[in-house]
Design goal:
Layout (H helix, E strand, L loop, with lengths): L8 E4 L6 H10 L3 E5 L13 H15 E2 L6 E8 L2 E8 L8 E2 L10 E4 L2 E4 L2 H12 L16 H9 L6 H6 L11 H6 L7 E7 L5 E8 L3 H15 L2 E6 L2 E6 L3 H14 L8 E5 L3 E7 L8 H5 L8 H9 L9 H8 L8 E5 L2 E7 L1 H11 L4 H19 L4 H8 L3 H13 L3 E4 L6 E4 L1
Parallel strand pairs: 1-2, 9-13
Antiparallel strand pairs: 2-5, 3-6, 4-5, 7-8, 9-10, 11-12, 13-14, 14-16, 15-16, 17-18
Helix pairs in contact: 7-8, 8-11, 13-14, 14-15
Length: 439
């Protein structure tokens, strides 16, 4: 007769495949023993043909649990009260969490011992256990999702003439020492659920949305699609010096590229949120999660010091020639604005890093206009022209004002807002449908 079940002892009347859950739960906790052939009340029932049952147990555990749990399991027969029982002793594993292969690293496949029962672990608990047992960075840990495909990655590597064999995946740290996909593999896989959110606003604040998008899939795919989206709204302004025409983009393309790469390469992917990009008429803000790596200060960044939070991801991007060398992105952004009136702003707070790129064309236009002695008179004439259009058409839009005055979005929105504040116009509708009518 045995005592009752507790945190390190489990009774099984007979062998069933469910024993795998108890073995996993003990290995993920403080270890324990499973006795087969014992009723729940502790009385001895015994096992018929114990050799055959032991073979079933060993084969089942070996084939259905990952990582390999057998070094931490002993299975033997004992004779108690004249009957044979089977003792399965499980030690705490060193490669936790252990899980059912058919279920994967999910609550339905990962168990832990709580009291006298084996319970599914939460996603958060699984992540914490991975970190605690490995001591590795997020990108080097086992991915919770192992059913991954790499269509985007393989195409990009093929373009760069980089081999994508199984051995190369290990070299690139996409596969860990345990033969399983790492979180780095998850980030560049087609199944990646980490996203980038981009919002396009009218004016210089968040009062009016013009568009918003969320980008999914491999971070390589997101990199390309987000850059293309920003490039579409990155307007070109033409100026003339005599017969020579000079085109100038709102934002230097190199600065946009480096700010976007910085968002992706240096963010802390253990956070569940999205990177945010806010596009206003006068600036773009790139907000990435994670802040600075512990031990670094903003002053260190401007001195060219670089310590990547995701060195394996940075190494992959380097091989793909997406980045030239470590720690040069901030300097490239600054150089792109070397001869401009305003310069990029770099800010950090707990868990956040933000890069703000000023719109070169909007600012230069405003400086020229406001430095003129005839500023007030020109402003009133422009407002009157807007009111004339509103009277003639019955309404006026921001786009109408841009075309009427050959002005940028910020200036058009600012004039319309001033007319509203003066009680001459009234705003109707929101977003793309917004327009203004006479009061």
């Amino acid at each position: 007769m045995f005592d009752f079940e507790n945190h390190d002892l489990e009774f099984k009347q007979e062998y069933t495949s469910d024993i795998r859950k108890e073995v996993i739960a003990f290995a993920n906790a403080e270890g324990g023993t499973i006795l087969i052939g014992i009723r729940k009340d502790g009385s001895v029932l015994g096992v018929v043909d114990p050799d055959s049952v032991m073979l079933q147990i060993v084969n089942s555990l070996k084939d259905s649990i990952a990582p390999d749990i057998m070094p931490f399991v002993t299975v033997k027969t004992k004779k108690t009260e004249g009957k044979f029982i089977i003792e399965v002793h499980v030690s705490t594993g060193i490669n936790r969490p252990y899980y059912l292969k058919e279920k994967g690293l999910k609550p339905s496949g990962v168990y832990i011992r709580k009291g006298s029962s084996s319970q599914p672990m939460t996603d958060e608990g699984i992540r914490e256990m991975i970190v605690q047992s490995s001591g590795k960075s997020y990108e080097a840990l086992r991915s919770l999702t192992q059913e991954l495909t790499f269509l985007t990655l393989s195409k990009e590597l093929e373009k760069k003439s980089v081999d994508f064999s199984s051995s190369k995946m290990k070299t690139l740290k996409l596969i860990g020492d345990d033969g399983l996909y790492t979180n780095l593999a998850y980030l560049v896989s087609d199944q990646c659920e980490v996203t980038i959110k981009v919002a396009l606003f009218q004016g210089a604040d968040k009062a009016v949305f013009r568009d918003r998008k969320e980008f999914f899939g491999s971070i390589l795919k997101q990199l390309e699609e987000v850059y293309e989206f920003i490039d579409l709204v990155n307007k070109t302004k033409a100026t003339f010096s005599g017969l020579d025409r000079m085109d100038k983009r709102d934002y230097p393309q190199e600065a946009v590229r480096e700010a976007l790469l910085n968002c992706i390469v240096h963010r802390d992917y253990s956070f569940s949120g999205s990177n945010i990009i806010n596009i206003y008429d006068d600036r773009i803000e790139f907000v990435s999660l994670g802040g600075l790596v512990p031990g670094l200060e903003m002053k260190s960044i401007f001195l060219g010091v670089s310590q990547s939070r995701n060195p394996n991801l940075a190494a992959l991007f380097y091989r793909m020639r997406l980045i030239e060398s470590y720690g040069t992105g901030i300097n490239k952004i600054q150089r792109a604005y070397h001869n401009e009136e305003r310069h990029p702003v770099f800010e950090t707070a707990k868990g956040v890093f933000r890069v703000t790129l000023p719109n070169r064309n909007e600012f230069s236009e405003l400086v020229i206009l406001e430095s003129s002695d005839e500023f007030e008179g020109i402003l009133e004439k422009q407002k009157n022209r807007i009111l004339e259009i509103a009277l003639k058409q019955g309404q006026v839009t921001r786009k109408d004002v841009e075309e009427l005055l050959k002005a940028g979005s910020t200036k058009a929105f600012r004039l319309l807002r001033q007319l509203c504040e003066e009680g001459k116009l009234q705003s109707v509708g929101n977003g793309k449908l917004s327009h203004y009518v006479l009061k």
